[in-house]
Amino acid sequence: MSDDIQDEPVTRQALNKLITTFAKPNLGSAIWQITNTLIPYLALWALAIYAFQQNYPLWLCYIPVLVAAPFLVRIFIIFHDCCHSSFFKSKWANTLTGYVAGILTSTPFRDWGKAHIGHHATAGNLDKRGVGDVWTMTVEEYITAPKLKRITYRIFRHPLFLFGVGPSYVFLVFHRFSHKQIQHQGRLSVYITNLGMLLILLLAASTIGYKTYLLIQLPITIIAATLGLWLFYVQHQYEEVYWARNDVRDSVKAALEGSSYYKLPKVAQWFTGNIGLHHIHHLNPSIPNYNLQACHNELQHIQHIEPLGFRKSFKSLGIHLWDEETRKLISFKAMKLIRKARRENQGKHS
After folding, report:
1. What's the Cα-to-Cα distance from 89 to each of 97, 109, 263, rounded to whole Å?
2. Taken in order 308, 156, 226, 333, is the CA torsion positive or negative?
3. 334 secondary structure, DSSP code
4. pLDDT (0 to 100) of residue 94
5. Which ranges of the chain does DSSP label H, i.e. alpha helix?
6. Could you tell me which residues come within 8 angstroms of residue 84 by beta carbon, excluding any fewer than 6 positions away?
7. C-alpha angle 196/222/65, rounded to 5°?
8. pLDDT score for 349
9. Helical pair 184-207 and 210-236, crossing angle rounded to 10 deg
């Protein structure tokens, strides 16, 4: 990296110049990632089927199931890149791979992809929440909300709901239906995904049986969905995250400060397709996951990004509301202190 580039102000133009090289799909890298993901995943499925058919103890049967779940997360990352048309250079290759990966991960390609593009366009924008994100209220909104809405919000933000009920509902139920304001291609992708899942189920029924199939498929899907939802949650729900009103929102800050650099152990980073480098992904969604690490390494020369460590990330479970005064996500307990201070202040002036 030259000194000239290091001395440049970190503008959108400078960043675009830096990252353009990495926003180019590589056919070899894409094929290799599919190979080292899909073959082990199918092999683990075969081991699980064999273990169940041989009536091995349940704990032994579920060893390949537990290992297969992270591979399904990796398949979802491939699906995710195809939704951005970044995995392959070819549009048809992205579409075909996206649909196949979508069937394997129970997620409709066009439908989910459209919502996710909307998420990128509105990330970090307080005035445009509710598009492909986690429901987040400001302190003021929560305090002035009706009681029923506050109770609903507390239930929704509770970890047992978010990571207990949430993953199963989203991937097994929510994605099975087309929704209002979805264009024809989006609705069609829902139908195609459902049909693909049904055909796999019927094939399994005629070979290994419904019971064996569901005993393997459901745990893999639920575990992978839970891991995936956690990754998505922690990528935008941490104390120092960037949020701003539409008129002052900065797109570079929304990418680099509104999306975490979630530093994971190397094995976990491999299984999650470098998605922990989410700040790079939001800076330019056209960068395929297999180029994110190299791009991050270059970016660190001109803009140091503080990582969110694995242990520290669990603190995100205790923060729920955006405080526009401190510009931080805070807990319900901290919100109560704010309400108490306001009441005391009103009492002094009454």
Report:
1. 12, 17, 28
2. positive
3. H
4. 98
5. 3-7, 12-19, 27-53, 58-83, 91-104, 109-122, 139-144, 147-157, 159-160, 166-168, 184-207, 210-236, 251-256, 266-271, 278-283, 292-299, 310-313, 332-349
6. 113, 116, 117, 285, 286
7. 90
8. 63
9. 140
* pLDDT, mean of each 10-residue run, the chain (350 residues): 43 78 96 98 98 95 98 98 97 98 97 92 92 91 95 96 96 88 78 97 96 97 97 94 92 90 96 96 95 92 85 93 93 87 69
* Number of compact structural domains in the chain: 1
**Amino acid identity at 337:** L
Predicted TM-score (pTM) of this structure: 0.91
Residues in the chain: 350
Exposed / middle / buried, residue 336 (Cβ in 10 Å: 0-12, 13-18, 19+)? exposed
Can you give the residue range of the structural domain that contains 58? 3-349
Contact status, residue 190 vs residue 178, Cβ threshold 8 Å: yes
Residue corresponding to tokens 């929440």: 129
CA distance 297 to 293: 6
pLDDT of 299 reads 87
